Amino acid sequence: MKVMSAGPTSDDTLLAAEICLHKGGRPQSYTFLGTELKHALPLAQSDPEQCRTIKRPLRSAVRLLMKYSLTFALLGALICYWAVSHGDWWYLLLWLAFSFFTLSVGYGGVGPRIFCKQPDGTIPLWVRIVHFPFLFYAEVVWHITQKLSRENPFDKVRDDLILGRRLRANELPPGILNYVDLTAEFEDPEEIRQSTNYISLPILDAGVPSVEGLIVAISRLHAGTTYVHCAQGHGRTGLFALAWLSTRGYVDSFEDGFAILKGARPGIALNKTQERFIKNFIAEQWDAAGADAPHH
After folding, report:
1. Order of strands across the sheet with 27-32?
2. 219 with 13: CB under 8 angstroms?
3. For every residue of 168-189, which 3-state class applies, written as one string?
4. Are 227 and 193 in contact (CB under 8 A)?
5. Which domains does the chain have, with CATH numbers?
6. CA–CA separation, 20 vs 155, rounded Å?
């Protein structure tokens, strides 16, 4: 099953999902934007024949992404001006400017597709060449951050859930069955991708996934320990982990789930758009399932 890329929507767009429950209250199938997911997530009890449509407006996400889009466009324009004004070797900066303009397009509507990350976690060579200035910058910043950071590479939330940053090949903890990669801008080591149930859900930094992409990724998880990461293991990782806790029935509110994550990994932090997204996701999911209380 292909993992869908996350992308922003227009102000008037509503992502809709339909959850149908069979007798006994457990989901028999999920239909998201026309895609039926035959995977029963352990949600709470509900009316046996209940089918509800959940609509999630993402206007706040659009506003945030547009800020990033305008920022990258402005940086690209300034770099272009500097390169053209000074000439000679400064023209090489036009490469960086082009990369920034492409990022502007990504945050403005195209989404993580600008990096063309494949389901196997690889980024095509031509994309790495086009985006080399930005990808090189992102890689350098990541390595510097690891040198300076005192934060653990990963932290255990539960026996079956571990959250952390992007890992090097020799850092993968033992016993990991599922490995969820939420970055759009990085490739994980091949050794990790081939030795686990690798799931790629590309999300732009500080962004949110599509509802469909999030549910599809969760539906692909096997029983066993799951490792979830983005670049540093904070925003995108926290969002996915909260969705995981909710769909497994362990929490029924953002506050409870966030407290669990912060207790395990203090660096977890969501921006306002990510927080609003996952609050809606949790509240509407439990409302759709007719849950009275979480399963502890």
Report:
1. 35-37, 27-32, 14-21, 51-57
2. no
3. CHHHCCCCEEEEEEEECCCCCC
4. no
5. 14-289 (3.90.190.10)
6. 35
Query: Residue 184: phi, psi to the nearest 5?
Result: -100, -20
CA-wise closest residue to 268 among 282, 254, 251? 254
Spell out where 146-286 has E strands.
154-158, 161-164, 176-183, 197-203, 225-229
Question: DSSP 3-state assignment of 37?
Answer: strand
Nearest to 35 by CA among 80, 4, 68: 4
DSSP assignments along 184-205, one per residue: SS----HHHHHHTEEEEEEE-T
Q: What DSSP element (H or E) covers 211? A: helix 211-219
Tell me the HSE value of 207 on the side-chain side, using a 13 A CA sphere.
Answer: 32
Q: Which residue has the tokens 């090489």?
A: 92
Predicted confidence (pLDDT) per residue in 165-193, tens digit: 999 999 999 999 999 999 999 999 999 99
What's the Cα-to-Cα distance from 255 to each of 44, 45, 149, 245, 247, rounded to whole Å? Answer: 19, 22, 27, 12, 15
pLDDT one-digit tens code per residue, 252-270: 899 999 999 999 999 999 9
Whether the model pTM is above 0.90: no
Cβ neighbour number for residue 164 with a 10 Å cutoff: 23
